[in-house]
Predict the structure.
Amino acid sequence: MEKLTFERPVIQKINAGLPSKFGISSRMEPITDIEGIPVRRLIEEFGSPVFVFSEATIRKTYKEAWRAFSTRYPRVQFAWSYKTNYLNSICRVFHQEGSWAEVVSGFEYDKAITNGVPGEQIIFNGPDKSRDDLAKAIANGSLIHIDHFDELYEIIDLCGTSVKRPKVAIRVNMDTGIYPQWDRFGFNYENGEAWDALNRIMVSGKMDLLGLHAHIGTYMMQTGSYHIAADKLAALAVGLERKYNHVISYIDMGGGFASKNTLKGAYYPGSDTTPSFDDYAEAITSSLMKSEIKPENLPMLILENGRALIDDAGYLAGTVIANKRLADGRRATIIDAGVNLLFTSFWYEHDLRPAVNVSDQTEDTTIYGPLCMNIDVIRGSIQFPLLKKGDQYVIRRVGAYNNTQWLQFITLRPNVVMIDITGTPHIIRHGETLNTINDLESVPEHLESTDNGTTQRTK
Amino acid sequence: MSKMAWIWQSMLNSYSQIFFSDNRLFAAILVPVTFMDFYAGLFGLMAVLITNLTAWMIGLDTFKISKGYYGFNALLVGLGLGIYFEPGMLLVLIVVIAGILTLLIAVAVEGVIGKYALPHLSLPFVFALWALVLATREFTALGLNERWIYTLNDLYILGGQPLVNLYEWWNGLYIPVSLRSYLLSLGAILFQYSVFSGVLLAIGLLIYSRIAFTLSLAGFYIAWLFYELIGAELSEVNYSYIGFNYILTAIATGGFFVIPNRNSYLSLLVLIPIVAVITVSLTAIMAPFGLPVYALPFNVLVLTYLYALKFRTDNRADLSTLFVQLNSPEKNLYSYVNYRERFGKESPVDVHLPFFGGWKVTQAHDGEYTHKGDWRHAWDFEITDDDGKTFKNRGDFAEDYYCYGKTVIAPADGVVEIIADGIEDNIIGERNPEDNWGNTIVLKHSDFIYSKLSHLKSGSFSVKKGDTVKKGDELARCGNSGNSPYPHLHFQIQSTPYVGSRTLDYPLSNIFIEHAGTRSLHTIGKPAKEDTVSNIMPEAPLRRAFHLIPGKILEFKTDDGEVTWEVKRDVWQNRYIECAATGSKAWFRVDDVMLQFTNFDGDRSALLYYFYLAAYRVSAGYSSGLVIRDTYPVNMVFNPYLIPLQDFVAPFFRYLSGEYTLEYPESKAGLHDSTYRLSGSIIRKIMGRKKDEIRFSFLINNQGICEFIIDRDHRKINATCTEKSASSY
């Protein structure tokens, strides 16, 4: 029989009433398997730590969002936000479901092309589009969302050499009642810059103005702000029709929908407070349906959601490295995934769960990553059961931004696995090796040998 | 068509209309037949001219005049007078009077029975000729016709010995008694009581319509057998003179006013003996006045029969009366069969689905829960996820249900008739039978077509009573009020404006139906339980290209030169494209999402004919890889003059067919810059086996149809739209 784990007795003050003499149960439900595959097996097979994605969850979430919008509005299109997670397999699942691609750099643009997305189905956002990027996007008939006047001038300039007419939209920022207001992207609505840009585009006559775009923020908990944003974009659309008799083809409401992760400092858990897709959809579509846009000109509604569509599908599974006591007596547990892999732990109180059966007792614990850096904290304080060295843990809802913002810092980035809808795991990104890193480096000739040089010079 | 062309048309049609036809060739045979007795023909023609001109002068409908509706009765009267009386100025005067009298009677009869949508047939002729026959007995100055009493003398005067010899030879030919009698009866229709006239008429009838010819024989021989049965001889002269009653009755009831099929032929077995009985009795009634019955028995039977058919509540006898008269039993049959296949039950107002996106039918017509009895033609809709569940979480609250709170939209243009509001949503699992329908809206779309949406959310209405709504306007939100244990949308079509009216068995238009995993597009359809349904959403470029609005000009350039088409509409608001060069016309129906051609008339080598075939059914909305299929009327894809065999058996069995297929691209590109290549085929089949195939394709861009290619074995037409046409948007 395996030796039982010794848990040090702790005395905790009960401060939430007294339902029974045992206090409130603080047992933490373990996650022992992902899509039917035991976490232990996944780690044995693919190493520790490992990112695990559930294809079924992606498709289910997509359909849920799609249902929310398509049953409220006659024409809806999703565009997968590449920066949220541009692992090819992930992108392709979204494209299979019908998503277009939303990219914010030349690199992402090329990635979308290699994923087989037709040029016309790529939305090119962001403040940094090089002249070459723009020329390519124009040639492919992609939708260019203009961010600033310098970009507009560059496009007008490119019109001189391009055979095709650029297909453009402008990004508009506006006061939607949230603070801080995002005003660094696009043209401002209230101060008239947006109209200024629209006038220049229409007067230039050199490009096709197809849409209007707004992206009011990220992790938006206020659906009302979307309603306001949609109102303002609709007003621009109506104005364009009155002034130029020009009918736009689409309104892009961007993304920014919250996932069910809990933000740091939030009072209630995200799963209780996050608006549902239905709430967002209702706010946006009710505005457009009631706007003054003529019914026959009702534009296509494009959404560029990333986080809300992918966060739930991603898991990070790993192994406990050690436990220790801190100076104030609190327990600290060190796990093998740190902020290098889990960039989002700067924003979220991640839902960390044991992957093995544990006792009912929990204790205030700090969870540290493996880095030799003081900032490497996954959870500052969590009621967590005791896990032994070598036990597995799972962190839920890590699908968004981690695989694009992770750092190759101190350690190498691990395998990423996708479990397909039949329950078969596939590696979709191989763990890095020393060669992955070294292959990119080159060493000048005089440094190739390590046994002289510096030693001689210090003598 | 020149302004005075109606005069010629009205004259020719006045001849062919006697046999319900507007066939020119047939008329070209009939005219000389009437002139077999020169003076009869002359006075007949005179009567036609007088009637048609009078009708025009007093301002009757030029269309009806040109169709010969007034003229054919006058023709018969004129022929009758010309046969009876010695030609002369007095007869001219009488014919003038007779022509005007016939016209007045025709208009009066039309006014009386036209209300019941019944044709006036030849009643005016019967009444007018009676009046004249009775009156002229007092006209002592009018001499009776003595021609053809001494036939050989007259022939000798006309053509000398050769004509007499020909006559002798002709009489010497063996013709069976019954056939001779049939031919005499045919000739008698035009007062030309000779076998030769009968032969000519029979040939004309055959040219006009194989079905009418068959029916004429069937009608006559059924009468013949009936007379045998009752012990009379139809071959006797006085009977032969009324034998045409059977022929005309057979054509009218067997194939002209009723779609020809097995049952319409079988009905003759009963109808013809009835005509015989009516004939005998009417003859007895008229005998004291010394008046022949002429075509009265035919008129009496056909009118009572057609009138009686109108009172049917269903068509279980499969005797379909027409809705569009194409003046030929063949055309009527082929187009009717095709119309039935394509459009099924007539739906005067297109009613669409009252929501956005894909919903599942959870109770269909004759449902197992509540769609029974008077309310059996209704649908319940809900939204489901991939697992077939209609709710998230545990479904304990109305908000958990996917359909709850979703927008309910107007299924068609209309006016808000009733709004019932203020009934609270039920707790899940409970019903509120007190307010069975819950919050409800009733829309009026046209007379006798209303739609009703029920179990809506309290206070969610965005329209009010009396509002005019357009298709797709938001009405309210889906709720859970009334007899509704969980949120769903009840949708029914009814003919009265009340909440709780009985339902109407009425189809939905232009919907995608996903049935057992396969998704298909239906012009009209009645989804079944478990089907997932959604509206077609039009794609702007496709809609622009195929939304043919009157006044629109389409111009194409081919190797043979340029063609110009204009979209027009006629007085009945039927829309058609007219080819400027050939005058060909292609009729169509179009709405937001669907273009469907219904008929073509004109030059079949014109590009417009191929356009009619290729754009036979085009949807402006589509899903990836959509394939649209349809069938053509037989006579529209096969040369109508080269399929006599099919015509003969068509009422019972159609072995020729034309199939239409249109394929949409696999996946669509972005929303802009959209060029679509639609391609398809027209396949002609004999006994279900492919005879030949025409391939075609359209290239659509933002300007419209920029290319139209037809690929036939011996001919490839490449039509590109001209600049002018492209800039007309």
About this structure: Chain A touches chain B at residues 59-60, 63-64, 67, 70-75, 77, 100, 118-121, 141, 143, 167, 208, 210, 249-250, 278, 282, 285, 289-290, 295, 300 (CB under 8 Å). Chain A is about 30% helix and 20% strand.
